[in-house]
Amino acid sequence: MSSLWKIPMILSICISASLTYTPPTPRPDTKEKSKFGKDDTLTRLTESSWGPLIGNAVPWMLGMCEIAAVLASVYPSRSPESIAHVLLLKPSTLPTSFAVTAPFIVGWILAVSGAMLRSACYRYLGSQFTFELAVKDRHRLITSGPYRVVRHPSYTGFVCVSLGLVVSELCSGSWIRESGVLEHLLGQVLVGVWATYVICIQVVLLQRVAKEDQVLRAQFGEEWKAWFRRTPYALVPGVY
């Protein structure tokens, strides 16, 4: 498969990241967050200016670098040497260096399918969907759509997108792996910090499951218990 096919796939991964890491609704007020007590780490990151920036900017930055590298490797005669220098491309770089590999396809599927699931959750919850833990006025317990399958499908989608990003950006054939980025200490540190940040966010996110269930059970009582019996799994059917 020509590496040019990778370009629309990269763009779809970037769009998936933006959809996943951009809040679909305004932030809840203090009263709406009060039932969850003290803000958790993810809420503080969401409310900071740099948390969403990392989630949105890094995938697009890496994506644009890889698209430019693909074009420079496929059309070397039309690409100024300065482009190759800026992208840290090696003299031995070939068009096949950025080919669509099996790990990249796995990462792409995870990212796009996760974003589609996340988008479905936005639609079903509507204005009730917030990145911060909150119970809105006249809050309703949504048990239809993806919420019939697992209780926290938006988290499932979030994890899929995040894992998809890490896999697609760090697998063989990616700009990070095929350029000279990892030959420099600064590049190693920056890539390591980003990958660690993404993984840590997943851990913090999964810690929310029990807390959300606890508050929703107190809020909706028997309605929540009936839903729990129908939908016993939190994230992955038959697993957890």
Description:
It is found in: Endoplasmic reticulum membrane; Membrane. It catalyses: [protein]-C-terminal S-[(2E,6E)-farnesyl]-L-cysteine + S-adenosyl-L-methionine = [protein]-C-terminal S-[(2E,6E)-farnesyl]-L-cysteine methyl ester + S-adenosyl-L-homocysteine. It is an enzyme of class 2 (transferase). This protein has 10 helices and no strands. The chain is elongated. The protein has one domain (3-230): Four Helix Bundle (Hemerythrin (Met), subunit A). It has 240 residues and is mostly helical. Helices cover 62% and strands 0% of the residues. It has helices at residues 6-21, 30-33, 41-47, 50-74, 81-86, 102-125, 153-170, 175-178, 185-220, 222-230.
Question: What's the CATH class, please?
Answer: Mainly Alpha
Helix-strand topology string: HHHHHHHHHH
Strand content: under 5%
CATH hierarchy: architecture: Up-down Bundle
Count, helices: 10
Q: How large, in whole angstroms, is the Cα Rg?
A: 20 Å
Instruction: Sum up the overall morphology in one term.
Output: elongated
Distance between the termini: 37 Å
CATH level 3 topology: Four Helix Bundle (Hemerythrin (Met), subunit A)
Helix share bin: 55-70%
Number of domains: 1
Report low-confidence residues grouped into runs of 5 or more.
Answer: none
Biggest beta-sheet profile: none
Task: Determine the mean pLDDT.
Answer: 86
Class of secondary structure makeup: mainly alpha
Number of strands: 0
Enzyme class: transferase
Main location: endoplasmic reticulum
Signal peptide: 1-20
Protein name: Protein-S-isoprenylcysteine O-methyltransferase
